Amino acid sequence: MRWICWVEIQGLYAAAAREAGLAEAERPVVVLRGGRVFDGCREAFAAGLRLGSPARQVLCDVPGATVVEWADVDATARARAFWDRCLAHTPYVEPVEPHQALLGLPLPDDPDGLPGGWAPGGWAPGGWAPGGWAPGGWAPGGRAPGGRAPGGWAPGGWAPGGWAPGGWAPGGRAQGAEGGRRQAADRRLQAELKALAEAAASFGFAAFAGAGSSRVVARAAARALRAEFLEWRPGTAPQRLEGAQVIAPRQAGGGGIGSRHAGGLAIGRPEGGREDAGRRAGVRRLEGPAVRIAIVSPGAEARFLAPLPVTFLPLPPEVQRRLQQLGITRIGEAARVSEDEWARQLGLQGRQISRWSRGIDPEPVKPAWPPRRLARRSELGGVRDRDPLERELSRSAALLAAQLDRRGEGCQQVGLILELADGRVLHAERTLPRLRHTAYPIQQGLHALLTQLLDGLRESVEVAAVTAEVGLIGPVDWRQMELWDDRLLRERRERIEGALSLLHQRFPARVIGLGMHTPTSWREQMLQYADPYRWSRKA
């Protein structure tokens, strides 16, 4: 099974602001985004800072805090270092924001060679070795004195192929074997998540990792852990995550959920005045980052999501407002509405809400980090006209699209590099609305970038070489196969383009191009489908 993990760091932007010198080391740091609290340091949250509170409330909650705008903080270096650390655990890393990342963990259900698990020939320490039981049991050639355990053999002894009731069954391991494999896989998953979360927490002051069978479940698990850790207040019951296994391998300050210190953060006003609170943040110093992990078992997605707020779903603001108008506040309430009714209310977005509320999200994790690119460079030898440039870009688009199509992948970014004869290098990129794997959208993007670069020069220049690139590569969705295979058509097109390229090199002063193409009629296509002799490679 492939687990999907959502990792979120708290305090990354505050740490980046302190590194950049935007805040003093002695004062708490609060980061605003859109006029509301978006991030902060450990001391700020311990003093009473709350996520989403308006900017005017910050100095009331954390007197003496340094307020920094999110746009002024450059967290790129920390984010890239965090994503590089994730690559040590899985190649499926999809950055969402600098402090968030989606990971795909392809863990086998029955890992070999794990301590306490199955190894070739039998159980490891404490189990059996080739030939019979280890210490206290029977050895090759027969059973040891006293039998398997003190007092001799158990009733029923051992049967051919294995132990009888309570032990081995005919044919080897039966009862408990599946549970042993599952426990070994669970231990490995927990170890991977713990290592990931601790690596992420080193870039801030806390990290939250949610794991499940889909993106929406993993995201909701991490959001629930963050809300429980940061927003819990004394006198309120902690939120219980139904159907999820919550792991806290390391708690800052030793405080736990339900104690006076919510997750290790001291909550409440200091006894000193405002100035004293601003200097010391009114909290005791806490040692080490905090880590929280939640694992949602397959089959428990709907039960886990039901009590959570509907704001945990990745919906646009206008859809959130519409849900408020309908009186839906919990994900379980949205799950009780039929998919047809959601479609009547919100169209395609409503069908997505119906699936998300039940934990269904088939979108896979895209391996978007490090950014993988495909490129094709062509040397032109000093071209001033735009027509040969566009022809070369069209040829590059067709070749790049063919590479993507063979791999079952698409691109969402197009780049163009122009190397001018005077030594200058021009570069431009364009993001496509969704993954594309055909030549036409790539060609259109390259032509638009070419127009953008040449119009920006406002002078005639010689282009020595041109490079077409595609980036943000990921797997495309499954699609219906075509009735008529167009591989032969693509091969003919490639041969024609190769012949045109040779003619352009031989006759550079001539205008050479393809004539009008007469498409095959529908009747002829039907006849070709019925009569196999009409198919011909020479057509």
UniProtKB/TrEMBL annotation:
<keyword id="KW-0227">DNA damage</keyword>
<dbReference type="InterPro" id="IPR050356">
    <property type="entry name" value="SulA_CellDiv_inhibitor"/>
</dbReference>
<dbReference type="GO" id="GO:0006281">
    <property type="term" value="P:DNA repair"/>
</dbReference>
<protein>
    <recommendedName>
        <fullName>UmuC domain-containing protein</fullName>
    </recommendedName>
</protein>
<dbReference type="InterPro" id="IPR043502">
    <property type="entry name" value="DNA/RNA_pol_sf"/>
</dbReference>
